[in-house]
Each structure stands twice: as structure tokens, then as C-alpha cells.
Specification:
The complex is a heterotrimer. Chain A is mostly helical. Chain A has ten helices and no strands. Classes of the chains: A mainly alpha, B alpha/beta, C mainly alpha. Chains in contact: A-C, B-C.
């Protein structure tokens, strides 16, 4: 399986991009040429030079450094949140699938209610109610998206539950919890991993669009979406300040998408688009 | 009797994996040729390549398939589709999955008719009902108005046969036509095939069931792993099979109920004499 | 209104006793009512977890220096001293009458504001939907039929790009290219169809790309089905097979997704409206959030959620028409 993954051109490109961005995120404090928050009123809007490889923004801050630190924010937010969502979804989804019956039906109906609210709406609503802050945004994201993951995982678990070996385990006297933990979960784990890996990119896009709208991060944070939003005011004179952050988002998302898709093709070819 | 079908050196395979290896045979009008063999012997591939049903991106087909002298392999797509369903018709193995589940039977019958003649929808519909009635199908109006999933396998297979007969075919390819049916419907289908043969249609019967071959066929080809290992008239083959494999197949088949070859001889004798 | 629908259907059911279609519709309608009820409850809860005291907020807006008594007065007037469930009933009653409260920002009725802004967003979303439908169906079908051809690979590459692009960035890029560098469009435009072209494209591209990928997969899986093989054997032309049979079989799952995406498009419109300065409900909601205008926020959230649920219902309905099996064997092919 690994060989297939590494031979796939798409996977390799995606993997390279992913690793590149992750490395930059991790090593940013070491490799960034300047302090991303250091303002210098005298160096506003400088063009690319040796000292400032991508120039400076409207407050004299080094664009390249800010972009590098931005990677930390994008990945640092997306990955843990996604894992949390995956975890919640796994627990709730498998439980709903295993218990079945009325519980499952109630679960689905409640799910429909939650799914009526697009994530942005929930975020806007909660931010409006509780005020700004990353905590609010995260809570809103988890509130609106848990159900989507739980539903999909529930489908996987339901399919798995119908298989014969589960019946055999039941006959052998396995308790429900044990069946779920030792049999169902390990067998749907690959599909769950694929599910998460294909969603990271859209998560990164979502988070950056929230910060673009001014929700979540305080002004001045070197996060890509926020940087883009700040660059708006000088867009027509200095479009680079908008172009660069967006390009970073694009490259990161594309990397994760490419890799996620390739992973899916390898792990669950029935779902693959090939 | 005219020679309807002449297959020469037909090879079918996946990229590096041959499935049908250098097969040649001929079939005459008014006769039935049975292609017998286990699953995987390549017999279905032969049917599908005759009617060009294989995906050219996946399968490689080489060799010659001549229908009344015309080379089918070099025909364009339009030409082949014009033949399929009119002069050459197919009866498929699984009638339950043969029809598009989201369209009513009537719509699919009408589209088949309209694919082969310039005719209005209304006239095509009437023709369709006539064809179904000819097969002694009950409540044809209601049938035409039903979705495929509401009908039984036997009924669907008879509709397929009706469709095959509409345009006066000269050749019919029956790919395991009775395999998915219960005994009663098997009998009905075999009856229809017999009638077809008698009216001068050439039958290419692909089957793993020697009983079908014994009842209908005039000539038999035995296939194994993509190659023809024995061929002959049905009487000769059953009475005195030459190859060990053929003998094995006969021994194991339902026909003999596992009682060995001698009972086959007796059975053939009772059938033919 | 929905109750009336249910009652009429009940009556028709008694006449057409054996008609399974109506039973199915009735079941779904009841489900719809339950979900709508749940949505309103959730909306109400969301509206009420605010740390901001609505009475105080309103008081500060209408009176210069409200005293504590004045605030209490307003609080009682607004019914905020009643238990929660009574507040909910009161609120729901108002909503059904069309009264969603008064905006703190514009001083208009929230429902009036929404009615003013919603059409613009609907136009934007509508045009996006048009772009999406025009592009994804032909692109994915041709891609699937000519699998692995240059066209197919090109489309696949394009769609990966499409789902990785941040829509706000794309908006700016388009503005730069088509309004500044090649002045085809005006930078800030409003009110005519031309002004909607760029924003609707921006809104459409990510969804169109995603749909193209999904639909291509569905079409591919249907191309090898038995009934396609038999259709070829019957002599049906390749064109008809693809554009009639395969298409109709492949559409149901994407239709459901399509209408569900309507909700996401509605939400995504906020970003696009922000970039292109369009006066739609998305931008209105954004401004309300900045200004902590709770009545507006809650009103918009409720309206958007309800639109979304109705769209899901529409999706189910269309699904039903396309695939007759769903009505008879409800669970087998659904959910």
C-alpha cells in the first residue's frame, strides 16, 4: 500500500507541499528573517529587497516573516480542531450506529436540526453573542460541524456492524463496548483517517475566511486570512499584500487536498474517483 | 443454410492478461451452437465482443468476427448499434439488472424500437404491446407502465425475449439465459428458444449447463481457460467425448446427476431417438 | 400553513388508501415540522446565550442615560423576566406573525431589513447556481466518458485547484484582473446583472469544482452497470445511453447535495458580498455582528436556517421524482 502511495505523482506533490508548509510552520521562529510583529513606520510598503525578501506591509512589518508565522496559525488551528471533531464524531457515530433503534433515529433527526445551520452562521451568531476570540470561533466550529462527522462515521460504523464477524463476536459473548472498541473502531479507522485528511484543506479555508471577516483573531495577527483582510485597504496600490497570503492558503490547501485524495484512492478505492 | 457468424482467431484480453485465446468457430442459420464451459472460461467474453459490449479502454479485442460476410470489427459504432437489437439480438444472464431502474418498461421498449426504425412514440408503444402479447405475457398495458423492480425475473426475461424478437432477428446470442431463473421459467425460455430455432434464427447459446446444450444445441464447443478444447455435433460430443476435461464436465453436470457418462449416453439416446 | 397541507394530505390519503406516495410525503412532512421546530429552538437558544443583556442594549440605544429603573421597565416589557419556555413561545408567536424584533443598528424592523437585503443575495446565489449547473454536469460526464484522456486530466487538475482556492482571495484576483487590469467590470457596481457576474463566479467555483469531482465518480460507477451493457446490446446509441440513462441514474445523490449546498452558498455569500461590496443579507449580518446588533443577528440566523431546511425538503422531493424506488422502500435507498 505504501508503495502505491509513493508512486502516485499526485500524492508526492501533495506530500511535498504539506511537508513544506508544516516545516515552515514549525521552524518559523528559526528561519523567519524578522520579527513578524515588529513595526517600523519608516519602512512602509517597501518592495522586495535582500533585507525584506517580500517587502513590507503598511506598518513596516516584514511580509515574508508574517507569512511564515501564518503557517503556524493555519495549521495549529486546523489540525487540533479536526482531531477533536474526529474524536467526537467517532464516539458519537459509533455509539449511535451500535445502539441503533430509536436512539439512532433521534440522533439523525437532531443531526438534521444542527445541519440546518451553516458553520459561518453559527460563528457569526456566537461571536455576536459572546464577543470576539478564538475560543468562540472554535466553540462555534465544533458546535456546527460535529454532526457532519458524526453522521458520516455513523454510516461507516453501521455498514461495519452489519458484517458477519460482528455477529460472530456477539455470539461469542463479547460485550457491546468491547465490540465497538476492538472490532468496529479499528476497522473503520482507515476510512475515518481518509475522511479527516480530505477535510483538512476545507477546514483551513474556512478558518482563514473567518479571520478574513474579522472573526476570531485580533487585528495584527500574522494569520493569512487576517493579513489579507488588512491588505484590503491598500489593495489597488499594493496588491501583493493581498496576493501573497491568499497564495499561501491556496498552496497549503492544494497540498492537503492532493495528498488526502491520493490517500483515499489507496485506502478505500471503492470511494475513489479513479 | 447460410453461414451467419464466422469468428476467426478471436483474442480478448486485459492489458497483459489474455482471456480468450485464438478462438475460431462458425454458426449457421436455423441451428444452435452451444458454447459450454466453467465460469471464467471466456465464453461470456466471446458474446460481448461479438456485440461490441466491451469497454475499449480496458479490453483489447483482436481477430475477425464476420456476420454474413461483413467484418464487424471494422464497422463504425453507428453500424454496430444498428445491428444490435435488430438483426443480432441478445438475451442476458440477469434479467433483474438488465433494465434501467429509473425508467418504466414501456419507455425502454419504446426507445429500443425507435432506435431501429423511424416511427412515432405512439406507434412504437403499440408495437411494444403487440410484442409483449406475442410472448403471452399477461396485462401488457400494466407491464409497460411498471418499473423493472416491480417485476419478477421470469417476466423480465420474457420481456427481453420479446424485445429480441421484435425486429426479426437472424441471430440471437443467449448468454446464460436460463441460469438466473427458476425451473418453470427456465422451461418457458427454452421453449421460446426452440421456437426461434425452428423459425430459422441462428442461436449462439452460452451456458455452463449441459442440459440446456443437450435440449437445444446442434453443435457444441467446449471451452477451457479461453481456448476451445473440443467441438462437434451434440450427439457426437455427448455420446463419445474425446477430451478428459469434457468427460469431467459431463460427469459433474446436473444432466448426469453425477452418475457418470453412461447415463449421459442413455439420456442422449432418449432425447434423440 | 404546513398544518393545512398535512390535513389535506390526510384526507386524500383516506380516498387513495393504498397510495404509497402520499404516505411517504406525509412522513416526510412530519419530519420537516419536527426539524423546523428543533431549528427554532436552537435558534432561540443561540439568541439567548449572549452575555449582553438585551434590555440594557436596547435601553442604551433609545435613551441617552438610562436609569436602572428604566432598564427594568424595558426588561419587563420585553418579557425577559418570564421563564425561558414562555419567552420561547412568545418569540415563536412573534416570528410566525413576521415580527422579528427591531434592529439596534438601523432602527428598522428586522424583518423589513431582511426583506430588503435578501433579494440581492438570492440573485447572487441564483446566478452562482446557474454557473454551477452549467459547468459541472457536462464537465464531469465528458470527463468520465473519456476517462484518463487529456481533457479528463485537465479537468481533474482544475477542480483540485478549485476546491483549494480561498473564495475571498479569488474575488480580489478577479477584481484585479477584470476590473483594473482589463477594465471589463466596474470595481463597485450594483443593481444590474453585469455586477453579479464576477461575484457569482467566485461563489460558484469552489462548489462547482467539488461537484464535478463527485459527479464524475458517480457517473464512472454507473457506466459499467448491467443495464448499460444491455442497452448497448439493444442498439441504443452511446449518446442516449450517457445523456439519458447514465445521467438520470447519477443525478439523485448530487441533487440532494446541491440543495444542501444552497445553505453553504447562502453563508458563503457573506464573504463574497464583503469583497464586492454587495448589499446582501450576508454583509448585513456581518455588520450586525460587528455592532452586536442581536435582534438582527438572531433574525438572520433563523431565516437562513429555515431556508436551508426548506431546500433540503426540496432536494428530497426532487430525489423522489427521479428515483421511484425511494418512496416504496424508504429506508433501503435513503439516508
Amino acid at each position: 500500500m505504501d508503495k502505491a502511495l509513493f508512486r502516485n505523482k499526485q500524492a508526492l506533490i501533495g506530500l511535498t507541499l504539506m511537508l513544506l508548509v508544516s516545516l515552515i510552520a514549525v521552524l518559523a521562529p528559526l528561519i523567519a528573517p524578522h520579527d513578524p510583529n515588529k513595526m517600523n513606520a519608516l519602512s512602509k510598503f517597501l518592495p522586495a529587497s535582500r533585507e525584506y525578501p517580500l517587502g513590507t506591509d503598511h506598518l513596516g512589518r516584514c511580509v515574508l516573516s508574517r507569512l511564515m508565522y501564518g503557517a503556524r496559525y493555519s495549521l495549529g488551528l486546523a489540525v487540533p480542531t479536526l482531531l477533536a471533531l474526529g474524536g467526537i464524531g467517532l464516539v458519537l457515530g459509533t455509539t449511535a450506529a451500535y445502539i441503533g433503534g430509536r436512539f439512532e433515529r433521534a440522533f439523525l433527526i437532531v443531526g438534521d436540526m444542527f445541519m440546518a445551520f451553516p458553520p459561518l452562521i453559527i460563528v457569526l451568531s456566537l461571536v455576536g453573542a459572546l464577543g470576539q476570540g478564538m475560543g468562540t470561533v472554535l466553540a462555534a466550529l465544533i458546535f456546527s460541524m460535529w454532526i457532519w462527522y458524526a453522521k458520516v462515521i455513523r454510516t461507516y460504523a453501521a455498514i461495519e456492524k452489519a458484517k458477519d464477524y460482528i455477529l460472530a463476536a456477539k455470539i461469542a459473548g463479547c460485550s457491546g463496548l468491547r465490540i465497538v472498541r476492538h472490532h468496529i473502531v479499528p476497522n473503520i479507522l482507515p476510512q475515518c483517517i481518509v475522511l479527516l485528511s480530505t477535510r483538512i484543506a476545507s477546514f483551513i479555508l474556512m478558518v482563514s475566511s473567518f479571520s478574513f471577516l474579522g472573526l476570531g483573531f485580533e487585528a495584527g495577527t500574522p494569520e493569512w486570512g487576517a493579513m489579507l483582510s488588512q491588505g484590503r485597504s491598500s489593495f489597488y496600490s499594493h496588491p501583493n499584500l493581498v496576493i501573497y497570503p491568499g497564495l499561501c492558503i491556496l498552496i497549503t490547501a492544494a497540498g492537503f487536498n492532493l495528498f488526502g485524495e491520493a490517500l483515499r484512492d489507496v485506502i478505500s478505492p471503492e470511494e475513489a474517483s479513479q | 443454410m447460410t453461414e451467419l457468424l464466422k469468428v476467426s482467431s478471436l483474442c480478448v484480453g486485459l492489458k497483459n492478461f489474455p482471456i480468450v485465446k485464438n478462438v475460431s468457430f462458425a454458426m449457421r442459420a436455423g441451428t444452435a451452437l452451444a458454447v459450454v464451459g466453467e465460469s471464467g472460461s471466456g465464453k461470456t467474453m466471446i458474446c460481448k465482443s461479438i456485440m461490441r459490449l466491451l469497454n475499449p479502454q480496458t479490453f483489447e479485442v483482436s481477430g475477425s468476427i464476420r456476420y454474413k460476410g461483413t467484418e464487424l470489427q471494422s464497422m463504425d459504432e453507428k453500424g454496430i448499434r444498428a445491428l444490435c437489437g435488430s438483426k443480432m439480438a441478445m438475451i442476458v444472464q440477469n434479467p433483474m439488472t438488465a433494465f434501467d431502474p429509473v425508467f418504466k418498461i414501456g419507455a425502454q421498449v419504446v426507445e429500443t424500437i425507435m432506435a431501429h426504425q423511424r416511427i412515432s412514440k405512439r406507434d412504437a408503444y403499440a408495437l411494444g404491446i403487440l410484442a409483449l402479447e406475442k410472448m403471452n405475457l399477461p396485462r401488457c398495458e400494466q407491464l409497460m407502465n411498471s418499473y423493472p423492480y416491480t417485476l419478477s425475473g421470469g417476466m423480465l426475461q420474457r420481456i427481453i425475449i420479446a424485445l429480441a424478437l421484435i425486429h426479426g432477428p437472424e441471430m440471437i446470442v443467449a448468454d446464460e439465459a436460463t441460469t438466473a431463473l427458476d425451473v418453470k421459467n427456465q422451461g418457458l425460455v427454452l421453449e421460446e428458444l426452440e421456437k426461434m430455432k425452428q423459425s430459422g434464427i441462428g442461436l449462439l447459446l452460452v451456458t455452463h449447463d449441459f442440459g440446456v446444450a443437450a435440449k437445444l444445441a446442434d453443435d457444441v464447443i467446449v471451452m477451457r481457460e479461453g481456448e476451445i478444447i473440443e467441438r462437434g455435433s451434440v450427439h457426437d460430443l455427448f455420446a463419445s467425448p474425446k477430451e478428459a476435461y469434457t468427460k469431467e464436465l459431463l460427469k459433474a453436470s446436473n444432466l448426469t446427476r453425477g452418475n457418470g457418462i453412461d447415463s449421459t449416453k442413455k439420456l442422449v439416446q432418449t432425447l434423440y431417438y | 400553513m404546513i398544518l393545512i397541507m398535512i390535513i389535506t394530505i390526510e384526507n386524500t390519503c383516506k380516498k387513495g388508501h393504498e397510495n404509497e406516495l402520499f404516505t411517504y410525503i406525509r412522513k416526510r412532512l412530519i419530519g420537516l415540522v419536527i426539524v423546523l421546530f428543533g431549528v427554532t429552538v436552537l435558534s432561540f437558544l443561540l439568541a439567548n446565550i449572549s452575555t449582553v443583556d438585551p434590555a440594557e442594549a436596547l435601553a442604551h440605544r433609545i435613551i441617552r442615560n438610562p436609569t436602572a429603573e428604566k432598564i427594568e421597565e424595558i426588561r419587563t416589557e420585553m418579557g425577559l423576566n418570564l421563564p425561558l419556555y414562555q419567552q420561547y413561545i412568545h418569540w415563536i408567536g412573534n416570528c410566525l406573525k413576521g415580527d422579528l424584533g427591531m434592529s439596534l443598528l438601523t432602527k428598522n424592523q428586522v424583518s423589513y431589513d431582511i426583506a430588503q437585503k435578501l433579494p440581492a443575495t438570492m440573485q447572487l446565489v441564483g446566478m452562482s447556481l446557474l454557473w454551477i449547473v452549467i459547468t459541472f454536469i457536462p464537465l464531469s460526464v465528458i470527463s468520465a466518458v473519456r476517462k484518463n484522456s487529456f481533457f479528463d486530466q485537465f479537468v481533474r487538475g482544475l477542480t483540485i485547484l478549485g476546491i483549494s482556492i480561498p473564495s475571498f482571495w479569488l474575488g480580489f484576483v478577479f477584481l484585479l484582473l477584470f476590473a483594473v487590469t482589463f477594465p471589463v467590470f466596474k470595481v463597485i457596481d450594483y443593481g444590474n446583472i453585469k455586477s453579479l457576474i464576477l461575484p457569482s463566479l467566485v461563489l460558484a467555483i469552489p462548489t462547482a469544482s467539488s461537484f464535478t469531482r463527485l459527479f464524475r465518480a458517480t457517473v464512472l460507477s454507473n457506466l459499467n452497470k448491467d443495464y448499460i451493457v444491455y442497452a448497448k446490446a439493444r442498439g441504443i446509441s452511446a449518446n442516449r445511453i450517457v445523456w439519458v440513462h447514465v445521467l438520470k441514474n447519477s443525478l439523485p445523490p448530487i441533487v440532494t447535495l446541491f440543495f444542501q449546498h444552497l445553505g453553504y452558498l447562502l453563508a458563503g455569500s457573506a464573504v463574497v458580498e464583503s469583497v464586492f461590496s454587495l448589499k446582501g443579507i450576508g454583509l448585513h449580518l456581518l455588520n450586525a455582528v460587528q455592532a452586536r446588533d442581536l435582534p438582527t443577528i438572531n433574525g438572520c440566523v433563523l431565516v437562513i436556517a429555515i431556508i436551508f431546511v426548506l431546500c433540503s425538503m426540496l432536494a428530497d422531493g426532487i430525489n423522489m421524482l427521479l428515483n421511484p424506488r425511494i418512496t416504496d422502500k424508504g429506508e433501503a435507498l435513503h439516508g
